[in-house]
Amino acid sequence: MLHLKQHFSENKHIIDLKTSILTFLFLLFISTTTVFAQNATIKGLVLDENDQPISNVNVTYGGENGAITDLNGFYLLKIPANQEVVITFSHISNKNIQLTVKEIRPNSEFELNPVMKTDIEQIGVVELMSRKKRKRVEGITTISPEAIRKIPGANAGVETLLKSLPGVSGNNELSTQYAVRGGNYDENLVYVNEIEVYRPFLVRSGQQEGLSFVNSDLTRSVDFSAGGFQAKYGDKLSSVLDIKYRRPTSFEASADLSLLGANVSVGSKSKNGKLTGIIGLRYRDNSLFVNSKQTETNFKPTFADVQTYLTYKFNDKFELGFLGNLAINKYSYEPLTRQTNFGTLADPVALLVFYDGQEEDRYDTYFGALKGTYVVSDNYTAKLIGSIYHTKEQEYFDILAEYRIGEVNSNIGDENLGEVEFSEGIGSQLTHARNDLDALIINLEHKGIISLDEDRYEYGVKYTHEDIRDRVQEYEIIDSAGFSIRPPLEDFINDQPYNPYDSPIVPFTDIRAINDVQIDRLSGFAQWSRRTTLGNSELWLNAGVRAHSWTVNGTGIKSNTEIVFSPRAQVTLKPEWEMDMLFRLSGGLYHQPPFYRELRDSTGTVIPDVKAQQSIHIVLGNDYSFNLWGRPFTLNSELYYKKLTDVNPYTLENVRIRYRAKNNAEAYAYGADFRLAGEFVPGTESWVSVGYLKTEENIEDRGYIFRPTDQRLKFSVLFQDYVKVIPDLKLYLNLTYNTGLPGGSPSYADPYDFQTRLPDYKRVDIGVNYVIINEDKLRSSGWLSIFKELTLGAEIYNIFDVQNSITNTFVRDVSSKVQYAIPNFLTPRVFNVRATMKF
């Protein structure tokens, strides 16, 4: 059988305008163009069965001289367009591959990454998008890195595109966090070049996050699984994001400049091809968004990082890679005033707040990893990965808020329209925090891949040491009409005049703790995969098991050790039908051993005997590939069910998660996801996603209530287009509609009494770019000749200026005993300009 990793990218062609309008009535224009040329380009990497590049492979076609792969397995070949061409890959240690490429369109570019075998000569016809099909066998969605760099978003990057997939939700455009199929932000695995990466601990709002770890300018491939993933991936309950950074094949440089910041990257390789390196620098400033919100502030953020990926190939057997990251995030916030109007047209109400004080946060992270890959033989490859992650975080704030709630002047034409005329309640709130955290995480991992005929065996063993030093000091004082409000606990019950009230004056909330915690983990996996046949149908089988043992120690903590086992399996069938159908059944037992945040309860106390949350996960999927309007499309459908036990309940405040550190709940999640992806416009990939989800939890057998991430309905569109008469003018659209999440509950409140929802989340981001220079429009003289590509554009975020809210602020009116849920609105319409360039 033929194993290929390939991706197809075409230039512009004519599309019927009427058909596109029927497909997307809400778009302003649909367009095409035709480019005439005589050649097409084939390029890619030649790999062995363990995904390692092979050098000195001869790539020829039709008896003509072709190309030879370099030390990194890279080749580039020009072939005639509109012809059937036979390409041959030959190498002294591997059997030949002979591929027939059918009439590639002029000026198009085709990425073809064949996998050579030592025992079987391969002859076949190239199938478009076959790499994606191979990934879909494993239940993995592949996303184009080029789309990531172009699609507009308030926090543009990999996470923005993930939120356009079914089953993935994120109701905060300033956050890089996402929830998958009812899970929370801590339930997602992220790997870069097989190295697990982490995010800061103390972030409590999206505007504080700064930059995602993943640098899209360095990215070569993006794979994502929303559940039912294989045993080779780690111990989380919800999803896997698997990123691969690229190796430059020649000198390259790029820059992306906008009002939100700048990204710059440079890459190259040595003359002998043994050393490759790429480095990226990023700077981010969210002032454009925050200064447009309802709260007037003095805001001085600085988010910056530098990343590098280096590889050195000592010989054909051994390669060493280094991944490094240094991130410095400063967040300075001084709120001044805020007015939030809410209520109804008949009874408008406003919250007016005057602030004093400021917030100073800082998150500094340092990350370094070495990965050695040794090809022991044609059938066995060994890998050794070591990484160190160090984060130093501080969260300091003292903010006094003096507020009043009152009736709003709603008389149209009145000079005081919108102002608070009558106060129904007044009060003040003082919040204080001096939180410091220092965490060091060390990983050492060995992996092996064994290939025997049609069987593939993979195993891994990993040791992790986590050392966390944490100081939590937070309090909140609430005063209303001269009375300090005590926490609603039994110690502070006021039953005057029957008994004298002599309870002390204390803060409404008060958390003080100093923790010194060490967690040692030993985990491993073993799995088997096989590709075979069932009659005339193709069949893929995968089965594996994970084991994870961890021990919690620390100052003043009683040591505790736990161990869990997680068996998993996948079965994929491709029937021998005229229709291109793929059926997949996957699932197993998934565990999430507690990280430090899950061990710490709402008082800051570490509970060492918190168990791993457990989920039985079943996913039934179908992929249907077909041609529409003469172009390729795929309809991906998945039904899923999760049964969760030993659940650790939590509350969600913006992006901060606070656990109860108790395994006192059970939960379930089920739903259906659908995605139609294809070339709605020739040469571009777009998609439409629809998802339905229901997830509830039962805490201490009190009955089922909504989980904080119960996102019932999700609809999104990601669309790319260009103008027929101006083919270098391109349009990118990102549309999202999510039904409202549960609105949370105030401090000390029973969540069973607060089952209201936030309003639906509706957002459309649009970007328009004009290509001044690209490979087809190179300038031979003048200052523009330094560019290989130059694009100027404009972006409008939240184009319809929808007021979306992320959480509620609960304000008490003592006189009427009414507690108001006041929405915290996200960003309004924002305009941005952007320039991207390659050298």
What does this structure look like?
With 839 residues, this protein is mainly beta. The chain folds into two domains: 4-128, Carboxypeptidase-like, regulatory domain (Immunoglobulin-like), CATH 2.60.40.1120; 142-496 and 518-838, Maltoporin, Chain A. It has a 22-stranded antiparallel barrel. A five-stranded mixed β-sheet has the order 4-3-6-7-9, with no helix packed on it. Strand 22 (348-375) and strand 23 form a beta hairpin. It is globular. The model is unreliable at 1-37 and 127-131 (pLDDT under 50).
The coarse silhouette is globular
* Overall number of domains: 2
* Structural class by SSE content: mainly beta
Number of strands: 44
Mean pLDDT: 84
- By CATH, the topology of the largest domain is Maltoporin, Chain A
- Helix percent band: under 10%
The CATH H-level superfamily of the largest domain is TonB-dependent receptor, beta-barrel domain
Which architecture of the largest domain does the CATH hierarchy give at level 2?
A: Beta Barrel
Radius of gyration over alpha carbons? 28 Å
- Report the end-to-end length measured between terminal Cα atoms: 40 Å
Q: Unreliable stretches, pLDDT < 50, 5 or more residues?
A: 1-37, 127-131
Beta-strand fraction estimate: over 45%
Number of helices: 6
Short description:
The protein is mostly beta strands. The protein is 4% helix and 58% strand. The longest helix has 8 residues, at 130-137.
